[in-house]
Design brief:
The protein is mostly beta strands. The protein has strands at 5-11, 15-16, 21-30, 36-45, 60-63, 68-76, 82-91, 97-109, 112-117, 120-125. The strands form three sheets. Strands 2-8-7-4-5 form a five-stranded mixed beta sheet, with no helix packed on it. The chain has a three-stranded antiparallel beta sheet with strand order 1-3-6, with no helix packed on it.
């Protein structure tokens, strides 16, 4: 359970094709009674160490009490299923970021099918 920066949702597809860009949005609610800075981060779990990161261009924001902030990011889907693992942090008066919450979402690999229709090749996700 989060103290101040509660992850309420991970918005991402359930499956993606290998090599495709996957957009991820982490929704974090400020549980504090005042405006605080909240940061989001994340990584992919699929057997590599260290875990490859998720790119979050705007990874922190000042969030008002009760507001839910959406932090958008992306990654390139590897050639296997992954677990998207996200984290939240809040910025303290001590000048440090404090880990607060985490959540995960499983993502399957989509099979690519190559189809030919009257000599015109096409690629579709299954």
């Amino acid at each position: 359970m989060a103290l101040y920066a509660d992850i309420v949702e991970i918005v991402a597809p359930d499956r993606a094709a290998p090599g495709s860009r996957v957009d991820v949005t982490v929704r974090v609610t400020n549980l504090h009674s005042d405006v605080i800075s909240i940061m989001a981060g994340g990584a992919l779990e699929f057997g590599l160490v260290p875990w490859p990161g998720i790119v979050f261009p705007d990874y922190w924001a000042n969030v008002t009490p009760g507001e839910t902030w959406s932090c958008a990011g992306w990654f390139i889907m590897p050639e296997r299923a992954v677990t998207v693992h996200v984290y939240s942090y809040w910025y303290g008066s001590d000048g440090l970021w404090h880990f607060d919450d985490e959540d995960t979402k499983a993502m399957a690999l989509t099979e690519l099918r190559y189809e030919f229709d009257i000599g015109t090749p096409a690629v579709s996700a299954a």
